[in-house]
Each structure stands twice: as structure tokens, then as C-alpha cells.
Amino acid sequence: MADANQKFVLVPHAGPVKASAAERVADFGEIYSGFAEQVAQSQSSRCAQCGVPFCQSGCPLENNIPDWLRLAAEGRAEEAWAQAEATSAMPEICGRVCPQDRLCEGSCTLEQSGWDTVTIGSVERWLGDMAFENGWVTPIAPRVERGQSVGVVGAGPAGLAAADRLRAAGYAVTVYDRHDRAGGLLTYGIPGFKLEKHVVQRRLDRLAAGGVTFELGVEIGRDLAFAELRARHDAVLVATGVYQARRLTAPGCGSQGVIPALDYLIASNRKGFGDAVPAFDDGRLNAQGKRVVVIGGGDTAMDCVRTAVRQGAATVTCLYRRDRANMPGSAREVANAEEEGVRFEWLAAPRAVLGGADGVTGVRAARMALAAQDADGRWTVEEVQGGDFETPADLVIEALGFEPEDLPALFDSSDLALTEWGTIRTARRTKATTLEGVFAAGDIVRGASLVVWAVRDGQDAAAEIDAWLRARASGRVAA
């Protein structure tokens, strides 16, 4: 039998079929089609099966990528899936939303040596979809019930990944979230054209079928005291994420028509669920017919500009203070946005929002230039004298990033230590906070980051909580 692998010389790179821009902006469906089985096997066969797999080290989850690519190429899809889910609580989601061009695919040896990269993310998505379609994904069934419980605060990717691993280890797990649906940013932040909601829901259904309890519409500190939460459970994981928007400080930024990105995206996703959203219906969080300016350069900004196009905006412009090469968002998402008609103003920073308190008419921006690289290698910028320009706008969306809420105040727990950035302080190389039995993971520890990092942190936190609870049960940790 001929070897089914290392065929990158014979098999050309082929990504998934992508709907045309004109076709895909008509709705919020995912723009990429899933691989057919034959294509998935063929693309998997391109893997060079490197002795040192840089794709694996480039993945925050350290997924066994060459192993499941080899199995997929050999037609052993179920075994490939088993390898994929061994290191990831949600492969089919990461396969959709990860910026593979900056992670595994960008690190691929073929990419680094002048060949086209292996389409790792698309194969990962295909494996996940195949697994659900064929019944390879089953409810969590712990081998033993440990008689201890864990409360997880936050139903986003970090909290869900931790709940998955903790329930599999035999703990009773309750996930608390302030929203009426679980999923966090997977549900209410990421638009459907990147992640259709049924993909998230089937993960949630699996957790519920396996015994994970969800208490939704419960805000810790308001509806349930943090002290009571700790009393209910043997351990607590804080995985709230960071949702407090960074706001513009330029003149006019308080005018009606200047809105935070997450408010805008949540409203759009709620409409997709069929919810009543008065602020969308009255136009405050709706881009239809408007000249939209989005300020920011990350993936949230890309989600906003592409959502605005689908809502029927008259024009959509993105202002970013650095150049294209230094944009933090995925290059793939920038290209998709350009195809869909978004105009980018690179090296442009907002100076003022024009108009009055009752509405905006435009944004005055300053031209910027790259100045020097800082210690982290990121370029600083400086203003170009005389380079001011104006762009018309009826709606200005702030996509400037997120900061943590004041959790010690919200939780009435002053002993919960924070870092200088307001994130939860954890002991070095652990997820343990300054409160006994309380752990933290995800963006609330590392700051706003990628879904895949939240999954990694949630899984690591689950392993640490498991070890701590086992030690406590055996008497090695004082109660």
C-alpha cells in the first residue's frame, strides 16, 4: 500500500470553497463550506510529518496535529477525531475561529520553506463536523463520581473547557453566567458568518447531557453573593472574561451614535436568535443605511465591519493607527472584509468625532507614521503634521479592546488580588488566586486574547483544580 502522507509535492494546496462576496453578504451564514471527505483526506496527505512539528508548537493547545493529519489522510477519520479531542475541548470551534495564519498554519514547515501550508484549520473543522454527524461525540460519562463540586463563573470558552474536563473527571459542575444563553463570546460576540450558533449549541447540549448544570441569568455579586457561591462548592473557577470596553477619549466621543463594539455585536447576534432588541429596532445599534466608521484593528473590529456590511450599511470604513503589516487581527479576516467592500484607512488615528450630542456626522483623523519598535518588537507611531483628514459617519463603533471589571468590588471580596492591569493575580505558573480554593483562567487572567488560549487556560485550570481537590480529599491539603 502506497504511503498516504507527505504528498505536498504532488497535491496542491486547496482551501475550502468560499462564497463570493456578493453572495455571502446577503446573510450571516458561514462563508466557508466544509471539506468533502475526499478533499479533507487529500489535503491532510500534504503534511510533511516533520520530526519537529512547528505546527504543534505554534498551537496554544499543542494539538497533535501531524498525528491526526496522518490518520485523516489514511481514511481513519474517527481515530483522527479521537486524537483531536484528546487535547482540545472544542476542535470544531477552534477550526472555525482560530487565526490559523498566525498560529499552526503560519508555523507549518511547508509555509516556512516556500511551499503552501497545510490547511490545518479546515481539516480540524471537518473532523469535528464529521464526529457530530456520525455520533462519535457522546455525552460525558465519568468513570467515578467524586462527590465534590466545582462552581464555574462564566460560560465562555475558558469556563466551558474547564467544565468539560472537570465533569469528565467526576466532579459535579455548575456553570454560572449573567447572560440568558451560555457560550459567552462564542454566542454573543462572534458573528454567525465565522461561527454559526448551532455549532456552539451542540457543544452546550453535550455538556448538559453529561451532567453539567447551567444557571443562566445569574450575575455573581448581584444575584448570588460570591461568598455564598464559595460555600456551595468545594472549588470555584473564575472565568468571566473581560468585557469592559475601552472607550474613545477624543472630543465628541460621548455623542449619540458612538457605541462600543460588544454592544453592537451582542445586539446583532440577539436579532439572529429572534430576540426583541429595541436598541436595534430603533436604529441605535443597527448599521442599515448608515455611514459606519469602526475604530480599531483587531478581530473584534473585523467582526464589526463585516457585520455592518451585512446589515446594509451605506459605507463601512475601518480606521487603524498602524499599517496593515502591524494589524493585530487575522490577515484572512482583513482580506475577507476588503472583498466585502470595507475601506481601510491605515495609519490613521481618531482626533475628534464630528457633529453634536444628538448625532455624529463624521470623524476627524490624524495621519500617523511608524516611528520605532518597542522592546516587544511592536512599532510605535507618531503623528504626521498637517495630515488631518475627515471621513463621514453616522455611526462610530469603538473596537479598541476590552478591560477587566473590578471583580473584588463586584464580588465584595477585597482579598482577591489583582495585577496592575486589573486582571486576577494568580500564583506563578498556576491558576490559583489569593483566595483558598478559588482559581481563575482565560482572559480575566491573561487579558483579552484568543478563543484557543481561553480553551487552553480552562483545561489547565481543570487539571489543577482536580489535583487540588484530590489532595484535599486525601488530607494532603488542609480543609
TrEMBL record:
Domain annotation FAD/NAD(P)-binding: ranges: 150-458
Q: Which InterPro entries match?
A: DPD_II, FAD/NAD-bd_sf, FAD/NAD-binding_dom, GltD-like, Helical_ferredxn
The name on file for this protein is: NAD(P)-dependent oxidoreductase
Q: Which Gene3D superfamilies match?
A: Alpha-helical ferredoxin, FAD/NAD(P)-binding domain, NAD(P)-binding Rossmann-like Domain
Q: What Pfam families does its record include?
A: Fer4_20, Pyr_redox_2
Q: Which UniProt keywords apply?
A: 4Fe-4S, Iron, Iron-sulfur, Metal-binding, Oxidoreductase
List each copy of the Dihydroprymidine dehydrogenase domain by range.
25-135
In terms of superkingdom, the source organism counts as: Bacteria
Name the source organism: Brevundimonas balnearis
